[in-house]
Structure formats: structure tokens, C-alpha cells
Write a structure and sequence with these properties.
Largest sheet: 7 strands, mixed
Structural class: alpha+beta
Helix content: 40-55%
Radius of gyration: 16 Å
Order of helices and strands: EHHHEEHHEHEHEE
CATH class: Alpha Beta
CATH architecture: 3-Layer(aba) Sandwich
Strand content: 15-25%
Distance between the termini: 13 Å
């Protein structure tokens, strides 16, 4: 997958990268339609920050694979078929429910609405990807996604993601993903696209 010369250095995340990576994720998702729908408005940004930190450090870094570019100005976190994160989700489920606050019902119903469109076979699932606003337009998004896409393809697994940002669809299509479902989330939720990239 071609990367621009100025796409920064991409490597697996380290503990030292976590603060900047969490900051990048928080800023990227503070006004994201899905997060606005499923996370309470009260102290919304604080809730997003804690949500991203917990999911990154307790799920993705332990049970999945995470890459950063420019030490965390871009970050991509994947769930892989190699490990089952169910024990961690059972442990942090109540915390995630608290963070959703009065939108917990929307969080549950959104998950139920998109679940039928997820792969039934082992797959790499893109949990989250973000590029800090000041670092956008330099190819960091494509660069930080490349290792996960390539690893999934090498293992013979599809890569899968869900996005509630319409302009993200064309970006992912350029990386070889195809829309497999277009879902309007319940309770006046945002339109959400399920996208899949099969190994070639």
C-alpha cells in the first residue's frame, strides 16, 4: 500500500504514547455523530476522554493491535481474531455504561442494530482510528491503517469497520473497503456504514 513520504513514522504503540494517543482520539471524536448519540451530553468531552482511554489501554493494547504515527498524532486500534477480549469487556462494561450516562439505551440499541452486519468468520475489526486535527492532510490516516490492513490480508482474514461519518466512506473505499450495510441507528441515531475489505 503506497504511503506518502511525509506520512510520519508508524510503529506499534508504547505506554509512553498513550497520553498523546488518548488526546488525539478525544479531539477526533468529541463531535463525532456516533459518540454524540451514545455518550451523555453532560461533560461530554470528559466522558469521551475516559471512554477512549479505557478502550485503548484495557482492550486494544491488551487484546488487539495498536499502531501510532508521529508518537500518537495518529492512532489505529484493531481487534484481532487471535484473542477474545470478552473478559475485559465484562470487567469494564459497567464503567462504559456509566460513561454513556443517560444515553446508555442508545449505546445498547446502536450495537444491536449493526451487529447483524458484522463478519461471522474471524476478522480484523477496526475499533478506532484518528488523526489529530493539526496533523491531517499528511497521509497519516492511511499510513497508520496500513499495518493492520496488511496483517489481516496476510492472515487471510477480512478487515471490517463501522463509520458514522459519511465523508469517511470514500476514504475507506480508496483503501479497498466496500460498503456491506447502510444502517440508520435507532432513536434518531446517525446513519452508519458497515465496510469490509476481503484479503486479496
Amino acid at each position: 500500500m503506497p504511503q506518502r513520504q511525509n506520512a510520519g513514522s508508524v510503529r506499534p504503540i508504547t505506554d509512553a504514547d498513550v497520553p498523546l494517543a488518548v488526546d488525539t482520539l478525544t479531539r477526533a471524536f468529541a463531535d463525532y455523530p456516533y459518540m454524540r448519540h451514545v455518550i451523555a451530553e453532560d461533560d461530554h468531552e470528559g466522558r469521551i476522554r475516559r471512554f477512549q482511554e479505557v478502550c485503548l489501554t484495557r482492550i486494544a493494547m491488551v487484546y488487539g493491535r495498536v499502531w501510532v504515527a508521529d508518537a500518537g498524532l495518529a492512532v489505529a486500534a484493531w481487534a484481532t481474531p487471535d484473542q477474545d477480549p470478552s473478559p475485559a469487556f465484562a470487567e469494564i462494561g459497567p464503567l462504559l455504561g456509566d460513561l454513556a450516562g443517560d444515553r446508555a439505551f442508545a449505546y445498547e440499541s446502536a450495537d444491536q442494530a449493526v451487529a447483524p452486519h458484522r463478519p461471522k468468520e474471524p476478522a480484523w475489526f477496526l475499533n478506532t482510528v484518528a488523526v489529530a486535527p493539526e496533523a491531517q492532510g499528511r497521509g497519516l490516516g492511511s499510513a497508520v491503517l496500513a499495518p493492520g490492513i496488511e496483517a489481516a490480508a496476510r492472515a487471510g482474514h477480512p478487515a471490517f469497520l463501522e463509520t458514522s461519518g459519511e465523508r469517511n466512506v470514500a476514504f475507506y473505499e480508496r483503501l479497498g473497503f466496500k460498503v456491506v450495510a447502510d444502517v440508520r441507528l435507532p432513536h434518531d441515531g446517525p446513519r452508519t456504514w458497515s465496510m469490509r475489505r476481503d484479503p486479496h
